[in-house]
Design brief:
heterodimer, A: mainly beta, 6-stranded mixed beta sheet, 3-stranded antiparallel beta sheet, 0% helix, globular, B: mainly beta, 7-stranded mixed beta sheet
Chain lengths: 110, 119
């Protein structure tokens, strides 16, 4: 059972928009920055969004992040088949003094 | 360019101690706000954070695994070492190290090293 809650899977058609939610509490998302990671099968995770809504260099603006209270959302517009991957949210939990990840969301582009 | 690379045994016997080394370049762990974390991923499962070590030698551990984990650093060698005692088949998976930026994100990850626990 992960501290952060994500839907196990989401799907949408190419060109469409999808959102992935990440729900936590005041000890993690509520008081710390959230980051998002993209992972393709057999490869290491890659930073997608940091500090709630910032994109590292090289990440297209089709990817966006937002945070409200104790929840965060990853948005992907103009879906491409190459976006099919697992997506994880993560942040520091001040009560646990530990980093926490969501359980991951598998994105399928139909 | 920041890079990290994990190394260690591919196969470990149950009850043995696992020692993994993260060798990095492009930054120094003696620089303020620099941190390195270890994360693992069992086959087909989610990411699980294990431990973190900071530039000032502060250390943090997963609540569920803290009795089995020890993290240390050798700044002169640009290495972070993680030991996990009493290995069990459920500890099988890919182990990653990543640089953790102070505000709270892992910006660069190693490619991971696969560890199988079996007799």
């Amino acid at each position: 059972q992960s501290v952060l809650t994500q839907p196990p899977s989401v799907s949408a058609a190419p060109g469409q928009k999808v959102t992935i939610s990440c729900s936590g509490s005041s000890s993690n998302i509520g008081n710390n920055y959230i980051s998002w990671y993209q992972q393709f099968p057999g490869t290491a995770p890659k930073l997608l969004i940091y500090d709630n809504n910032k994109r590292p260099s090289g990440i297209p603006d089709r990817f966006s992040g937002s945070k409200s209270g104790t929840s965060a959302t990853l948005g992907i517009t103009g879906l491409q088949t190459g976006d099919e991957a697992d997506y994880y949210c993560g942040t520091w939990d001040s009560s646990l003094s530990a980093w926490v990840f969501g359980g991951g969301t598998k994105l399928t582009v139909l | 360019q920041v890079t990290l690379k994990e190394s260690g045994p591919a196969l470990v016997n149950p009850t043995q101690t696992l020692t993994l080394t993260c060798t990095f370049s492009g930054f120094s762990l003696s620089t303020s706000s620099m941190r390195v974390s270890w994360i693992r991923q069992p086959p087909g499962k989610a990411l699980e954070w294990l431990a973190r070590i900071d530039w000032d030698d502060d250390k943090f551990y997963s609540t569920s695994l803290k009795t089995r984990l020890t993290i240390s650093k050798d700044t002169s060698k640009n290495q972070v070492v993680l030991t996990m005692t009493n290995m069990d088949p459920v500890d099988t998976g890919t182990y990653y190290c990543a640089r953790l930026i102070a505000t709270g994100y892992m910006d660069v990850w190693g490619k991971g090293t696969t560890v199988t626990v079996s007799s």
